[in-house]
Design brief:
Number of strands: 14
Largest sheet: 8 strands, mixed
Oligomer: single chain
Distance between the termini: 60 Å
Structural class: alpha+beta
Number of helices: 8
Strand order of the largest sheet: 7-6-5-8-2-1-9-10
Order of helices and strands: HHEEHEEEEHEEHHEEEEEHHE
Strand content: 15-25%
Amino acid sequence: MQSRVTISGNIVSELSEKIPSNIIALNELIKNAYDAGAPSVEVSLDSTKKKLIIKDTGEGMNKSDIDTLFHISNSNKIYGSLNKKYNRYVQGSKGLGFLSVFKFGHKVQWETKKDKGYRFSLDYDSLVGQYDISECVIELIEDDSIEKGTKIEISIDDYNMNSLLDYFKEETNYKKILNAFDDDTFDINIKIDGIVYKSSSSIILYSAITMPLIPKNCVTGLRRRESSRVILRMRDLRSICGSRSGRSRRWKLWRSPLGRF
């Protein structure tokens, strides 16, 4: 005599609620693009069509990768490990990537291409209503006209639409997203109802020497100063490099969100 474990579809709802906010969920989706080796990712929000689209130019997914995507709480990624193929440190690892999409809406479609192009979709309500989610079957449609990379299209609900629009009204907020990665090989673009915001040229300048050695005439554009750290605009960096090139080579440079210390 045997019994079997069944898992109610309601587990999807409970696990989705573990993601604290839609902004964190958005960051998780951007992390997936980064880990896929994408040189760029675009987050597009269209309030007229009520669509949120996350599109990257990374390696895309094959059938095995899609199976892993839908293996809840399972991941073959180790956070912080070096992906030698892309020379990047892995950002995601929880195996909850696909659940992040349900923080925005209930209907989601993926298009992805690695070796072959695939299109597939999920309906949150249908998934949650499953008696045993392990018996859920997702239809994969082959389509080689799909571009390399991954595109996620979410039919966003009114609450999350208004929430994101309000959030991105603040310059500081969208810059936190744009500059979330300290990696010049990865660009993030945000498009809000046709208005495009690109990765900022703001950088953090960490001095390998003491603060007094920074030339006084090179800090006219100073935004924030704390111990041996300063934030300068890119034109100020050019001023430094132009007038004190020997000394500037002793400093380490990388981008960072405004106000992150």
